[in-house]
Amino acid sequence: MKDNMISQKEALIELGKRIKKYWYMLAGSMVFAVVYVVLSLYIPKLIGYGTDKIIDAKKVDFPGLKNVIFTIVICAIVAGIAQWIMGLCNNRITFNVIRDIREEAFAKTQRLPVSYIDSRSSGDIVNNVITDVDQLADGLLMGFSNLFTGVVTIVLTLIFMLQTNWKIALVVILITPVSFFVAGFIAKRTYSMFRKQSEIRGEQTALIDETISGIKVVKAFGQEENTVKRFDEVNDRLCDVNMKATFYSSITNPSTRFVNNLVYAGVTISGGLEAVLTRGITVGGLTCILSYANQYTKPFNEISGVVTELQNAIACSARVFTLINEEPVKDVEENEDTVLDNISGKVDIENVDFSYVPDKKLIENLNLHVAPGERVAIVGPTGCGKTTIINLLMRFYDVNSGKISIEEKDIRDVTRKSLRNSYGMVLQETWLRNATVAENIAMAKPDASREEIISAAKSSHAHSFIKRLSEGYDTVIGEDGGNLSQGQKQLLCITRVMLALPPMLILDEATSSIDTRTEIRIQRAFNKMMKGRTTFIVAHRLSTIKEADCILVMNAGKIIEQGNHEELLAKKGFYYKLWNS
């Protein structure tokens, strides 16, 4: 992911595309920003007029002064309302854009190939969708609130100053580029540091995620101290990058203030000389232009603070948009020819080659023909390719060469949704979401009635333990099953499949976490469920596959033996050794 990271310019373009959707709010924000700035800048001019009306103690123009004060109050009220409405527009733009980006990022995680998810830590992906987007929100809101208003203030202040006295305004224009040069010089160096900061933050999130999710294993093996050391190492690197990024970003404001003081000093000296030597400006005019000089320099101080936040926001947005721009899984268009239906369970694997890493071969020239309703067991040592076959059948990965067909249709020519709906899967690794027991079971069939759910639970022998829960089927279980035992979680996953009853089944160590007594009961339920359904069974416990119609013995990615239980024992080959080991 780091290698494919998009550039700062590309990140800004991507962000601009998403802001464009809310152009009407942006236009409204700009209009009210201009109203606010114009009125804010008109007030010093009015103060200058008021000053000139009281400069002579013997000729104070009270009626004129009253009108000036009234106008100032009206301008201040309208400017305040305009600023409030501008803030509402900015908040709406920011939170709508952030909502869209977060939805887009999460939706992309559902369409990414499994290979992408497998090659990255879940914590880093979570950091992309949550923390990086939050950082972007902070920078975006500050940018809308201060950056645009600041730029408008600078431009309009110059215009007002040119109207008041072009000579003094020229002094300001000549000194201004120094401020831009200083801010730009520092900003270029902070971006790379904030980008590195975001990457290390993702690494830290991943470490915390894996530690918390596996805390029992960490404690069981006494790895608390080593885990803390690993965290401290990552935390120290994050602290180091934070310090460097903060150091460079923190000198932006003082540097800008120094240049701004030069501007104010230049205006004061040139204005004083203009008033004394040529009398080209009145006392009120000088008061007005000094106020403008102060207002002109103020946005530079604010923008310098915004630049720091924006550098951090853009660095985070680059990571988010890199995720969003990842190539999604390509699927065929859904139509009558690409949707699997009326499935009998005929599966053919022909001349299949596959490897996760190009230079490390795993499966070579695999051939298998499964008749409808046949039970196929896959056995072999760890790493021989058993689960890989399941990944290929479900199209979590595509074959490198050869093809897999269902009902004589290449599975690459049918939609993934219809393919996966054709299978019911029970894996060794259970997954339950934070919802009620009934809702977790009904994931396989969302429109299932409560009676159907209970019937499926009884078939899987999960009903008895579910009834003992505090709220029965309405008990909310926490993330990944909460306090349920591994066996209970696996029973719920088995119940899902029994509820859906798809035409084909995949059982990957489906009873690995269940006690022997319950396993015997579930095997009976499985036998009933597997009748007439093509079933692929991956198992380490060979006692669970004795009834299979065909047993494939795999080693080093190849099928080395094939037959039923009695035939393979009679051969006294690899399966015979596994059985007696």
Low-confidence stretches: none
Shape: elongated
Question: Structural class per helix/strand content?
Answer: alpha/beta
Mean pLDDT: 80
End-to-end CA span:
44 Å
Helicity, in percent?
55-70%
Beta-strand residue fraction: 5-15%
Strand order of the largest sheet: 6-9-10-3-11-12
Query: Rg, please?
Result: 35 Å
Tally the helices.
19
What's the total number of strands? 12
The biggest sheet, with number of strands, parallel, antiparallel or mixed sense and barrel status, is: 6 strands, mixed
Tell me about this structure:
- By secondary structure, the protein is α/β, with parallel strands linked by helices.
- The chain contains 19 helices and 12 strands.
- The chain starts with 7 loop residues before the first helix and ends with a helix.
